[in-house]
Design the sequence.
């Protein structure tokens, strides 16, 4: 049984999809939560990764990645429940806050399946989780593709989903502050400054969900690095998610539910901090995606491009970090109890619910250890 949490205050640092979902999960478990972040939903900054994401559910976990597979499973189940509840409310004429989530057919093709799924279908752990899973007949594969699967997946429109999470945090009694953490004097000093700025009841614990910002905030974690991604937003909303892992490139088309257009991608440039859009890469993305989404082309065979953008995925050698640390700060009698939750790379959306539940579990375990 979880401990009684009503009197315990937790500060969550970071308002990307990981921080927002973690704050909401802790509120729903009975904790008092303050969310503090430099960037909030609605902001557009290279430092704020979540708005730039493709934001659909496609597990990156292999059979050996038990934790990540669990996070992905829990997120899929949770998102699917939200969509079902929204659809039921609409059928019954009830008012509902739209989440920006939606179910879509998905098609995933591999040119070199031996690199990603060496045992074919049996390498795909989530085949029994997603609805309508099947192997694509060889005669229906794109040219040069050697394996493919079809299934039903979930997509999120970040321009709707991030504000949706923020609204639910506020409705559940959470408070939100726009604050900047100083990093020049180490994590302990940064936390002391933030706690003083938040004010009020001292926190029982602090969740560090600062994404790529954790590289500077946690100066000792040099495992953090950016993975640059470049995408193109086109005006029309696609009817399906399509992904192709080809020789030397990845191409995908991801609809944004609720009329948010479609994201075309993509790229994975490890260690690249460059904020600029690469015109040559954009041209390649358009070329690759024309085959994947011909239904989005106009009469001239072109996409109606809205924007081109770059995002820096918060990657980490060894995978995402979720764990507790006691952090001392000069002039304070007791160290801060910090639960780190960052480094999810390009899997933040699909990890978000399960990752937040793991933070809750770590927090509850610490509460039980500390006692009344």
Sequence:
């Amino acid at each position: 049984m979880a401990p009684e949490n009503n009197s315990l205050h937790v500060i969550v640092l970071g308002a990307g999809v990981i921080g927002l979902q973690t704050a909401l999960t802790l509120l729903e478990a009975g904790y008092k939560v303050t969310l503090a972040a430099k960037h909030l939903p609605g902001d557009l900054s290279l430092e704020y990764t979540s708005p730039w994401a493709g934001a659909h559910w496609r597990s990156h976990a292999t059979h050996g990645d038990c934790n990540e597979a669990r996070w992905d499973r829990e997120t899929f189940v949770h998102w699917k429940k939200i969509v079902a509840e929204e659809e039921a409310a609409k059928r019954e004429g009830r008012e509902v806050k739209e989440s920006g989530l939606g179910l879509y057919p998905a098609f995933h093709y591999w040119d070199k399946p031996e690199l990603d799924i060496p045992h074919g279908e049996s390498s795909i752990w989530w085949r029994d989780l997603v609805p309508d899973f099947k192997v694509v007949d060889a005669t229906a594969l794109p040219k040069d593709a050697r394996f493919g699967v079809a299934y039903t997946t979930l997509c999120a429109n970040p321009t709707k989903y991030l504000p949706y999470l923020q609204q639910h945090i506020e409705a559940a009694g959470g408070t939100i502050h726009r604050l900047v953490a100083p990093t020049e004097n180490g994590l302990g000093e940064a936390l002391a400054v933030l706690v003083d700025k938040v004010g009020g009841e001292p926190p029982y614990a602090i969740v560090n969900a600062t994404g790529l910002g954790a590289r500077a905030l946690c100066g000792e974690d040099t495992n953090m690095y950016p993975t640059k991604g470049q995408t193109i937003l086109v005006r029309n909303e696609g009817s399906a998610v399509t992904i192709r892992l080809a020789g030397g490139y990845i191409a995908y088309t991801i609809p944004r539910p609720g009329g948010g257009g479609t994201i075309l991608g993509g790229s994975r440039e490890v260690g690249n901090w460059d904020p600029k859009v690469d015109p040559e890469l954009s041209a390649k993305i358009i070329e690759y995606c024309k085959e994947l989404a011909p239904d989005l082309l106009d009469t001239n065979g072109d996409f109606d491009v809205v924007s081109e953008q770059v995002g820096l995925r918060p990657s980490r050698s060894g995978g995402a970090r979720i764990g507790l640390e006691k952090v001392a700060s000069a002039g304070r009698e007791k160290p801060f109890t910090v639960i780190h939750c960052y480094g999810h790379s390009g899997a933040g959306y699909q990890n978000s619910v399960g990752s937040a539940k793991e933070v809750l579990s770590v927090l509850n375990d610490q509460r039980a250890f500390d006692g009344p």
Observations:
- The chain has a mean pLDDT of 94.
- Residues 103 and 332 are 50 Å apart (CA to CA).
- The two ends are 14 Å apart (CA to CA).
